[in-house]
User: What shape does this take?
Amino acid sequence: MWMIRSKLSAETFIARVGSNSFQVFLNKASKPQVIEIADEIRMAIEDFEFSVAANTYNVSASLGVAILSPSEKINRASELMSQAHQACCTAKKMGRNRIYFFENSDTQLAMLRDDAKWVPKIKEALRDDLFQLVFQPVVHLADGNVSHYETLIRMRDGDKLLTPGEFIPVAERMGLIQQVDLWVVTSIIDYIAALPESYKDISFTVNLSSHALQCDYLLPVIKSKLDTTWVSPSRLTFEITETAAVTDFDKTRQMVSKIRALGCRFALDDFGAGFSSFNYIKNFPVDYLKIDGQFINNLACDSSDQVLVKSMIDIAHSLGKKAIAEYVSNAEILRLLKEFGVDYVQGYLLGKPEKELLEEQYFPLSDILRKPLDMDALL
Assistant: This one.
């Protein structure tokens, strides 16, 4: 505190509000004056160093600033303090050792405020078992049989069933994603273990977050659950996005290899979206390449997508991997994918994500392919 105090006038109010957090109140200061004082504090802390034994250390400070103009009104001083705190959090997210000003219209701060509302909902869902698994069939194009199901997560919020896009990004930003990953993995293994004998040949894919393979928490849980439930590891395929796979390639590859050594399989999701080096794909130990849906959506009427999708399928086969196409929404897309030699397909044409598995594990693809082309569906 003495270092901060040395850059302030005697009448300036300063308070310690946390273990390493301080707040300063500047009365009747213009924005240029605030910037100057804040930067002096930041630089003084940055220049400070201390020694312990033979080691020398430096520290830095992130500063958030909230300004109350004469025309504005607040009900409590805590509102201004909260705004400064939110600005400080944004300064940390943007790389630390910087100054950030609170703005009511700021998208970063708006996201932080929104995240704060979601955190108790996600914690409640974990505590009260409000998450739910749904399943979408993945069909083997050669014979029309359901090869496996993609396992997707939903969150119950009152009468609504929320999709992953609404809560997974928040869970990742707020440090809750590990708990969600563990819930999904343990729940799907328990689900498989409880299935009747008639479903013994059906396997499932599970989406993992970008954080799941960067830490060691997942491997022992998978191994323990497989051992205690007697579920065959071959019935589990884990999906990770291409972007996540190359974030820390060596660490991810090592973890994938360890999980595959248990007998599980892996799929690289959103293939083509990241435009990664083919060297990554060649050396990444996965069994399936799942083509990103953006290339499938307009496949029937976009010749460029047709060239790219055919190339991706050829690449997958040349590397000894199977190709999966998602977002298959009409018969013309299915016809083209069959012509290109894709191995598996999924999409609303074949089934939406549902809570229950299909009673009939077979699709008469020849009948579907004979359906007349619906031009409205392609527009």
Observations:
- The two ends are 64 Å apart (CA to CA).
